[in-house]
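Submission checklist for the structure archive. All mandatory fields must be present; incomplete records are returned to the submitter.

[x] Identifier: NAD-dependent epimerase/dehydratase family protein
[x] Organism: Acutalibacter muris
[x] Residue count: 355
[x] Sequence attached
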Amino acid sequence: MSILEIIEYRAILQKLREDFPFWHRLSGKTILITGASGMLGSLLVDAVMLWNEERPDQGRCSIIGVVRNLERAKARFAPWSGRPELTYIQHDVCEPLPELPGRPDFWIHAASTTHPVAYSTEPVNTIMANVLGTRNMLDRISELGGRFLLLSSVEVYGGNRGDAERFSEDYCGYIDCNTLRAGYPEAKRVSEALCQAYSEEHGVDAVILRLPRCYGPTMQMTDSKAVAQFIKKAVRGENIVLKSEGRQFYSYAHAADAVKGMLWTLCVGEKGEAYNLADGQSDITLRDLARTAAESAGTEVVFELPEEMEKKGFSKAQRAVLDAEKLKGLGWRASYSIRAGVAETITILRKCANG
C-alpha cells in the first residue's frame, strides 16, 4: 500500500497544510531539494504536491527533486506521476550540479547519511555529501540566485560540557575530531561555515536549520538510529532492544514538524542565521523512548550489547537538548509530542507493511 493511501498519513499532510501560514510565498515558485526521496524530503514533496491540488496551474509550486536512485524515487512518488510540477534529477551531490529543468527560487540541501551504521560503513561519503554537496549547491546559487536552506544538526554542538541545560545557537561543545564518528558533526560544521563564507564573498542568501533526532512515517527502513530501530521493532510486534542503559537525554522531532520548520525557516528566516528546531514535549531519555515504543506495540524493553560496527557510529553525547526559542520567535510551533508521534508512526508503518 502506498503511504499516500493511508488516512493517518494524509491527515499529517493536511495538518501541515493548515498549520503553515506562508504557503502563499511558494505560489508560482520552484524548490530544488537534494535527498528528495529521504525521510524529510519525501514528506516535503508530498506536502507541497497536496497543496498544489488546491491551486490553479499558474499558482502551483514546482519541485526539482535531486535523488541518487531514480527508480526508487519514481516508485515512492508514483501517486504524483504525470504531474508537471514534479521533476527529478538523478545525481550524486558530491559532483557539480548538472543543467537544471528550471530556475529554482529556493534550494534545500537535505541529502546526507544520518544514522550510525552509515557513519561507520560510509565515512567518506558522510563527509563529502555534506561538504561537497553544500559547496556544489552554493556554487550554482552564486550563478542563478535564490535562497538556500542548509539542513544541519544538533550534532554540531558536540558533547555537552556540563555548563548548559539546553543548547542555544551560540553554544559550542566538545568534539574529538580524531575519531571516525566525528566525520558527521565536523562535516555539518564545515557546511555551516561554507554558508557564511558564500554569503560574505558571493552574497548568497543562506539560512540554517539545526534539527534534533528525527523520526516519522517516512523514515527509511535502513535507518539505524535508536528511535528508528525502536519503531521498526514495534511495527513487527517485537520486543524493543535497548543497547545501552538508556540514560541519554535528547531532543526529538516528528518529520512533519521538521518539514514545517524547514518551510518556516526558508520563508521567514533571517539571512545568515541558524535556528534550532525542538520542543519540550519531545525531549526524552532513550530508556523512556524505548518504553514508549514498547507500550504502543504491547511488547517489552530488553537489553542487548551493540554490534561493533553499530557501536562505532554511536554518539557519545549524554545530553543533547536544543533551545528553540529563536525559531519559536518566528512563530513556529511543534504539533506532535514524542508519545503521540511515535504511536501514530507505528500505526502508519504497520499499514504500509500489511498493505
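[x] Structure attached
Curator remark: DSSP finds twelve helices and 13 strands in the chain. The chain has one domain: 3-214+253-279+321-337.
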